[in-house]
Amino acid sequence: xxxxxxxxxxxxxxxxxxxxxxxxxxxxxxxxxxxxxxxxxxxxxxxxxxxxxxxxxxxxxxxxxxxxxxxxxxxxxxxxxxxxxxxxxxxxxxxxxxxxxxxxxxxxxxxxxxxxxxxxxxxxxxxxxxxxxxxxxxxxxxxxxxxxxxxxxxxxxxxxxxxxxxxxxxxxxxxxxxxxxxxxxxxxxxxxxxxxxxxxxxxx
Length: 204
Prior knowledge:
alpha+beta; Pnp Oxidase, Chain A; Methane Monooxygenase Hydroxylase, Chain G, domain 1; seven-stranded antiparallel β-sheet; 6 helices; 7 strands; DUF447_C; DUF447 family protein; DUF447_N
């Protein structure tokens, strides 16, 4: 058993690669939910790592490639990326690679997965998976920055992934996309603007 390469809190948006039946590694966006912390866990963990041994979790919605590969392969590579285009492509298009680890990943964790629950939400089958890292690596360290354009791309990608999904208001989602696009135009750099153009092309 290994540790995550970085402390988790709340929901961390990552890119996961899972091996498909064709032997290639499929990319997808994956929100990783930090383990629930017991009272005093923050103090006990010292560096912000969860003191609890409870696993992090993630959800798959519907019969996606990630759902299939988790079920059939029992694992994948969770990767921490900071490139907006990579995230958009992973979330909204079909991208497959011969190698599991992305060249631009700042860190990654190879995880074993176990399905811990299944429920129906507005006609969509939602599976919950426990993620247990068995190997991890920090590839590069960087000074953290807070860029609203990048954050807008991430939020817009989540909204775009829910278009035409039962239970979500398409008109509301499109209004969100318009708002996040305006934020990206004001605050993002060239890479963020390129990512939003790609998002628009993929989501229609």
